[in-house]
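thought: fold this chain, then report.
action: predict
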Amino acid sequence: MSLDAKIPEGPIDKKWINHKNNIRLVNPANKRSIDIIVVGTGLAGGSAAASLAEMGYNVKAFCFQDSPRRAHSIAAQGGINAAKNYQNDGDSTYRLFYDTVKGGDYRSREANVYRLAEVSANIIDQCVAQGVPFAREYGGLLDNRSFGGVQVSRTFYAKGQTGQQLLLGAYSAMSRQIGKGKIKMYNRHEMLDLVMVGGKARGIIARNLETGEIERHSAHAVVIASGGYGNVFFLSTNAMGSNVTASWKIHKKGAYFANPCYTQIHPTCIPVSGDHQSKLTLMSESLRNDGRIWVPKKKEDAEAIRAGKLKPTQLAEEDRDYYLERRYPAFGNLVPRDVASRAAKERCDAGFGVNATGEAVYLDFAAAIQRYGKEQATVHGHDVNDKELVTRLGKEVVKAKYGNLFQMYEKIVAQNPYETPMMIYPAVHYTMGGIWVDYNLMTTIPGCYAAGEANFSDHGANRLGASALMQGLADGYFVLPYTIGDYLADDIRTGEISTDLPEFAEAEKEVKDRLNFFINNKGTHSVDHFHKRLGKVMWDKVGMARNAKGLTEAIAEIRQIRDEFWKDVRVPGELNEFNQELEKAGRVADFLELAELFAKDALQREESCGGHFREESQTEEGEAKRDDENFTYVAAWEYTGDPGEAKLHKEELNYENIELKQRSYK
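observation:
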């Protein structure tokens, strides 16, 4: 069965403006009688809640943290893309559109990506007006830097904490509406089910995480903006609380889940140090602007470094393999994330890894420090041959650009990255897959929308760096506030939705029954015991490289872990209290179902594209090899009662503005 994405007719550069001009509106007086629930208050949810309330709707916003300021959006360090062309280096709306589609390995929907590029410039203006402290050049203009997969500088940034500063901007906009009573904020609340009345999304069941109370909340529409599902791997760069529950609950109520196997492996993470770890730390991709990635050319040097007999700073330049610069001269260290990640894995698998486990490469700033130092020495009329002075000046420039990242690395690894190269290795980071949405961001459930990382719509099989913040804010500030009105125009006479309806009672009973099961099950193993086992299967067999044999084995192993989980999980504590083990139990139960669909999706997609690398489908040079004849579609899965029996629906992808061709960054 094919899906209707409701893409407007006409030229791609006119689709969005024409669509906005022709969709229905809700007048200001009628907005006051319409309620909208927003689940998740990161950049997508926070900007959506603020915008919808500013327009006059009554918004109920839910986050499981104690404050929206703790949303995982703060972890996006490096920047946000926008086609402003401030650097006069050839950027444009079309170029951003092209780079994003190519970076996603030609597996994203053209119309959505062009709209994203189109509204990107508005995002920067919005955030500057909110007071976001973007970096500026000497003359006062906003500064830009480059990110992977592009040959222009279009990334706006606030040192190494861009996500946090943007989130504070959205939070300030939310706070204004909370103060006016237009947003009712539910902190420390978790959505545990979607309530449907008459085939439409009409509310949610939520748990107050402080008291354990189960609550019913009604609305005329529900927006899911709860982020991605990278924690299905247990070890990831995601916050420990990040989960799939909100998305999975609406999936089980009828929302199709699209491309779950499209998961991004980020190349610049601090390597795993042992079994004690519960999460990994990301070093921003912005570091690849100035850091050079390398491993020793000789295995004996790599072995000596691993044994502690040789320091990286002692290795001569001619004995270093800057493998990204060697393999991809046109883009060098700024190839897309999936390409850089696989290249690092290939070098480490070949025996050139540089930490004790052999799973790390170097990210070296020595050359950048010298380059910036000489530039500053020249500017100030100092001797460029004074190495000590040049080094000091160079370190000051690097500190101004990346200082908090260097500080974070030193606190975790206990090594000074100004003096010795950072060690990095790929790790699970972002999920391009998610809930299927049409051009209006509506799921296959009428009245249920998905925004930001929770939906699948913009990044194809690989997300370019600095595009997550762009998509989240584009959806929340500039897309959803327009498109949701077209649906809500039918609800101006509906009136308040009662929570006494039998559908609410039934959903509440299902939630309570599940929670009671966890509390009363007399198992012998903790929730984390099962989550770690799941994560190992996912990383080993559904991780950076996949093959049919491993995926088939993974599906069987995931089922076995899930069966054992339901028989043998132990959740201490009580139901009606603050109980984080109970929270985790519900989230891991959902991960155990998602994981099987994830592997099933990866197994049926018999091609390599972006972050989905099937070993059976690669070029002679080891690059991802697509099969455009058979797989140029979005795989949207319908829940049928068992993730292993999910039904596949296809949205065919038509490329009318960009030529389909094998990616090359050489």
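thought: worth noting. The chain has a mean pLDDT of 96.
final: tokens above.
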